[in-house]
Specification:
It is built from seven helices and 18 strands. With 356 residues, it is an alpha+beta fold. The chain folds into three domains: 93 residues, TATA-Binding Protein, CATH 3.30.310; 115 residues, Translation factors (Elongation Factor Tu (Ef-tu), domain 3, Beta Barrel), CATH 2.40.30; 125 residues, Nucleotide-binding domain of ferredoxin-NADP reductase (FNR) module (Rossmann fold). The two termini are 36 Å apart. 36% of the residues are buried. Bound molecules: flavin-adenine dinucleotide.
Length: 356
């Protein structure tokens, strides 16, 4: 295996302090950090980052086995360094493998191939494109780059500092997060299930108007799913239906547990393939606007968590429900961090841009 590498040097007044902050940040994100005076090494799951101080000069080094991973490590090091007070203005230019590339290695351009309404409010769009094997991964989601209606696509490009340069102006794409529902790399296809919600932003509006041949960009994939367990608790509204469907169909047939899913009405339920030992409970909003109640949180809190089994609890929900469930699992149930994952999939009254 060939190891690819890139390096950048930056002059900083207080390099030791910045390195300490970076190490702290990456440790908080559960990466293994080996720190010694004047140097540090961060073991990412996709490669290695290292930091070395020589007086006021900090050398950053990224190593990985492919250009996409290398770019991701360069991005993580550069982005977090520039977020630190006093380092925002630091001039950082990477040299080495992949640094002359003019397109983002993880970007794929795909076109609408098929459109299928799964329920009145859930539309599956199957996109066709090349080189999609990277999306056939345990990672759960992608960022969809959606050109404004009627505009030709203009994509972000690599920045010399490792941070992509985003297009500006009327052609700039919107970025939205969606679950990879299905990938057939051999057929060059990736499917995404879109909720057709009220007050649609660029994501839902694209799904509503999509026609054969429309173009979007993909970035990713990212985001973990569930860890191995004997008993699972899964919770979500219709935005998490694609993720729950995907999790259920990949669990071992012996898996047990409960899935609680909130949808608008009976017609919004899906026939989900699931292990026999996982009970599905559907909740209906029956007229209440999505995200306007905590019924889902209350229903999930009422599910007793077995004490004598290995457990994993997962939720993808509106922000308020996410907050309630995360607090419940952490504080009331005492589930350790590696035994639960709650994610805010959207926030009522806020576009995804506003939360970025
Ligand atoms: C990891 C992850 C995976 C996701 N996977 C999927 C997926 O597979 N399918 C999917 O449809 N969504 C998914 N989502 C949720 C999706 O990203 C959000 O719903 C997103 O806001 C949709 O973008 P938009 O452009 O339509 O609306 P935005 O521009 O983001 O928001 C516009 C308005 O719509 C409201 N809004 C957003 N979503 C909803 C909703 N569901 N119901 C009612 N109002 C809403 C907002 O509060 C805002 O007022 C996922 C989110 C995450 C974080």
């Amino acid at each position: 295996m060939t190891l690819l590498a890139a390096e950048a040097q930056v002059h900083l007044a207080d390099a030791e302090r910045h390195v300490a902050h970076l190490c702290e940040h990456f440790e908080e994100h559960d990466f293994l950090v080996e720190a010694a005076p004047g140097r540090a090494r961060i073991a990412f799951d996709i490669g290695t980052g290292s930091l070395e101080i020589d007086r006021d000069r900090l050398t950053l080094r990224a190593e990985a086995d492919d250009t996409t991973r290398l770019a991701a490590i360069k991005f993580m090091l550069a982005q977090h360094l520039q977020e630190l007070p006093g380092a925002a203005e630091a001039r950082l230019i990477w040299t080495g493998d992949g640094c002359a590339d003019t397109t983002l290695p993880s970007l794929r351009e795909v076109r609408v191939r098929r459109i299928e309404d799964l329920t009145p409010h859930l539309r599956r769009i199957t996109f066709g494109g090349q080189d999609l094997a990277r999306y056939d991964a345990p990672d759960m989601h992608i960022h969809l780059l959606i050109p404004p209606e009627g505009q030709p696509p203009v994509w972000p490009v690599p920045g010399a500092n490792g941070i992509p340069v985003w297009p500006e102006g009327p052609s700039a794409p919107a970025m939205r997060t969606y679950t990879v529902r299905r990938v057939d790399a051999a057929a060059g296809e990736i499917a995404v299930d879109f909720v057709l919600h009220d007050a649609p932003g660029p994501g839902a509006a694209f799904a509503a108007r999509a026609r054969f041949g429309d173009v979007v960009g993909l970035l990713g994939p990212g985001g973990r799913g569930v860890a191995q367990a004997d008993w699972y608790l899964l919770a979500g509204d219709e935005t998490a239906l694609p993720a729950i469907a995907r999790i259920l169909e990949r669990l071992s047939p012996e898996a047990t547990g409960v899935a609680v899913i909130e949808v608008g009405e009976v017609a919004d339920e899906l026939d989900l393939a699931h292990p026999e030992g996982i009970a599905l409970h559907w909740l209906h909003r029956t007229g209440a606007p999505a995200g306007s109640t905590l019924r889902l949180a209350e229903a999930v809190k009422a599910v007793p968590i077995p004490q004598d089994r290995s457990v994993f609890a997962w939720a993808g929900t509106e922000f308020e429900t996410f907050k309630a469930l995360r607090a419940h699992w952490r504080k009331t149930c005492g589930l350790p961090r590696d035994r639960h994952l709650a994610v805010a999939y959207w926030r009522r009254g806020h576009s995804e841009d506003a939360d970025a």
